[in-house]
């Protein structure tokens, strides 16, 4: 038997609405425009919940920043940044790891404008602005001593907002069933509460399966750090 040799299963938002409604026990013939508006809103809250549950591999991205001027200490990270994973300073083609410090550690630095080779950073996850945009800045120290060093940042971002019905959500193939399951729970919560608990259990299992697969498969190496920065003599 011949296969399709295609990998194009990528449902749009309207398809997820239908799937979630069917799982929740709603008659698709009775779905109104108000239902669709409500369910699209729930899609956004599903993504918000997923963001709070830890990083997703497909949302990792890498950016590069070169200081605009000597003495620079801070720059903006891309819109939608949730957290920084790792940072290196690239000088003359050689990468050197930079270390994360806390807000209080950054505050007590004696001279934040002291220039040199940057070796640590603080990620300031500020409150969203009035438009609801997630604003994040990176403060680094020492301050830039030239405009040729490049700070390379691996970070992860929140999923993009749900769009119009013909858009596809910002999720990969392996999370499609998980998204439909979570959305069905929210549909049932609003319109079919008697089915909510069963759907909630199914969604929890779908999340475990998707989350367990969405992982970094490199070997884990654990080592002790006895530097003064980490509170050891």
Order of helices and strands: HHEEEEHEEEEEHH
Mean of all residue-level pLDDT scores: 86
Q: Going across the major beta sheet, what is the strand order?
A: 1-9-3-4-6-7-2
> How much β-strand is present in the residues?
15-25%
State the helix count: 5
N-to-C terminal Cα separation, in Å? 68 Å
- Class computed from helices, strands and strand pairing: alpha+beta
Radius of gyration: 23 Å
3D shape: elongated
Q: Please tell me the total number of domains.
A: 2
Helix content: 25-40%
| Biggest pleated-sheet summary | 7 strands, mixed
The total of beta strands comes to: 9
Residue runs with pLDDT of under 50 for 5 or more positions = none
Question: What's the short story on this structure?
Answer:
The protein is an alpha+beta fold and 233 residues long. It is built from 5 helices and 9 strands, in the order H-H-E-E-E-E-H-E-E-E-E-E-H-H. Helix 1 crosses helix 4.
What does this structure look like?
This protein is α+β, with helices and mostly antiparallel strands and 233 residues long. The chain has two domains: 13-54 and 160-213, no CATH class; 57-158, no CATH class. The chain has five helices and nine strands. The chain has helices at residues 13-24, 33-52, 103-107, 176-191, 196-213; strands at 60-66, 74-76, 81-91, 94-100, 115-116, 120-125, 136-141, 143-144, 150-157. The strands form two sheets. A seven-stranded mixed β-sheet has the order 1-9-3-4-6-7-2. Helix 1 crosses helix 4, helix 2 (33-52) packs across helix 4 (176-191) and helix 4 runs antiparallel to helix 5 (196-213). The longest helix has 20 residues, at 33-52. It is elongated, with a radius of gyration of 23 Å. The mean pLDDT is 86.
